[in-house]
Amino acid sequence: MKVLPGMAVSSSALTSQKLWLDLIANNISNMSTTRTETGGPYRKKMPIFAERLREAMGEDFKGYGVKVEGIVEDNSPPRMVYNPEHPDADDEGYVAMPNISIVNEMVDMITATRAYEANVTVLNASKSMALKALEIGRG
Question: CA 112, CA 17: separation in Å to the nearest integer?
């Protein structure tokens, strides 16, 4: 029984989901940021997940977790909001706001939280099986 690779898979997923939750929190906190260092409004950031591979040994399972392959910015156009008093308003009184929907961010947050919880459950089950196997060896 290979318990440690199962724990490695769960721990890599926990790390990835935590990063996703951090990005969601960052997106929500910057929903009103109209000016960034690179110019223009803040752009939503999203993680790209990929399978972490190891060398195949015969018919063995090839995957052993997940990794974050990169973080990409949303390329959708900004929301144009009429607010002529805003310091970043254009000549017509429109302000380019980040195209971030709180509803979509909350759905992503629930998804990431559920995935995190599922992997904690798997990690705890693996730990419990390893402890039970040690108890069998003592008896």
Answer: 6
- Which tens digit of pLDDT belongs to each residue from 82-121? 999 999 999 999 999 999 999 999 999 999 999 999 999 9
132: in domain: no
Specify if 131 maps to a domain: no
| N-to-C CA span, the chain | 18
Please give the residue range of the domain that contains residue 69.
Answer: 4-123
C-beta separation of 49 from 16 below 8 A:
yes
Number of folded domains that form the chain: 1
For 35-64, how does the pLDDT look when each residue is reduced to its tens digit (9 = 90+)? 999 889 999 999 999 888 765 444 555 567
